[in-house]
From TrEMBL:
<dbReference type="GO" id="GO:0006011">
    <property type="term" value="P:UDP-alpha-D-glucose metabolic process"/>
</dbReference>
<dbReference type="GO" id="GO:0003983">
    <property type="term" value="F:UTP:glucose-1-phosphate uridylyltransferase activity"/>
</dbReference>
<comment type="function">
    <text>May play a role in stationary phase survival.</text>
</comment>
<dbReference type="InterPro" id="IPR029044">
    <property type="entry name" value="Nucleotide-diphossugar_trans"/>
</dbReference>
<protein>
    <recommendedName>
        <fullName>UTP--glucose-1-phosphate uridylyltransferase</fullName>
        <ecNumber>2.7.7.9</ecNumber>
    </recommendedName>
</protein>
<dbReference type="InterPro" id="IPR005771">
    <property type="entry name" value="GalU_uridylyltTrfase_bac/arc"/>
</dbReference>
<comment type="similarity">
    <text>Belongs to the UDPGP type 2 family.</text>
</comment>
<keyword id="KW-0808">Transferase</keyword>
<feature type="domain" description="Nucleotidyl transferase">
    <location>
        <begin position="11"/>
        <end position="272"/>
    </location>
</feature>
<keyword id="KW-0548">Nucleotidyltransferase</keyword>
<dbReference type="Pfam" id="PF00483">
    <property type="entry name" value="NTP_transferase"/>
</dbReference>
<dbReference type="InterPro" id="IPR005835">
    <property type="entry name" value="NTP_transferase_dom"/>
</dbReference>
Amino acid sequence: MTKITKAVFPVAGLGTRFLPATKAIPKEMLPIIDKPLIEYAVEEAVNAGIKEIIFITSHTKRAIEDHFDQNFELEEKLRSGGKNDFLKKINRDIFRDIKFTYVRQKTQNGLGDAILHSEHLIKNEAFAIILADDLIINNPSCISQLISSYDEHQCSVIGVNEVPKNETEKYGVISIDESTSTKSSFFLNDIVEKPKNNPPSNLAVVGRYVLSDKIFKYLKNLKPSVGGEVQLTDAIKLMLNDEKVVGHLYEGKKFDCGSRHGYVNAIKHLAKELFDD
Ligand code: G1P
């Protein structure tokens, strides 16, 4: 059994839904109160035992690299001004021993293509994938729950939740083998990306995965499909011919911060914990 130590973060997407805010800054850098969205996702990974963060990025996303790098000038100013609380916020202890790796995805050909860009960094091991747009709040975190499920079942695991039937067309949707599934672990029969009609269930894929490195074999030969993009879902579907995949019904509250509505709700939710009014 391999320990999950690497997480891939596809962050090359354009963030058009947030224009003009995202004209000059990556959508992943939009703040949820005072912390950028991407930091919540990286924190989730690191707290789950991930040691290497692999960003699949693009030329418009340099601010993400800067955010996880050191800013000596700012640190020095904070230090000499005695502002140690802020110093801790920009130079976090939990990130000290974490390796950050950046791979450029030159053209945005979809999630499957983004993940394929990490192939040379993943060596005979299962790895995590986190889509930072999905902010999921829970302790233990969603990715921790998936890693526990991977340890238990020894196969790839994808995070799923129940959505209203009329919303299934926005997600990957799984079909399950009822006879072997339990309350929160569903063995997949099939998976389909954004079904227009007849969704196989109301169990939708969220942006958290723990996948076997076999996924690269299937990703390599994929043709673009839904939306003209290479879909990770299609590779998972092919993988089902050879191995088991579990859908894990995670516990937690999810905010789709790729949409303005979800983003504002995430801020409202976290603000309630911080402020009285
Ligand atoms: C991607 C996946 C989809 C999944 C979703 C979760 O879609 O392709 O299967 O359900 O993330 O957020 P996207 O939202 O990038 O269109």
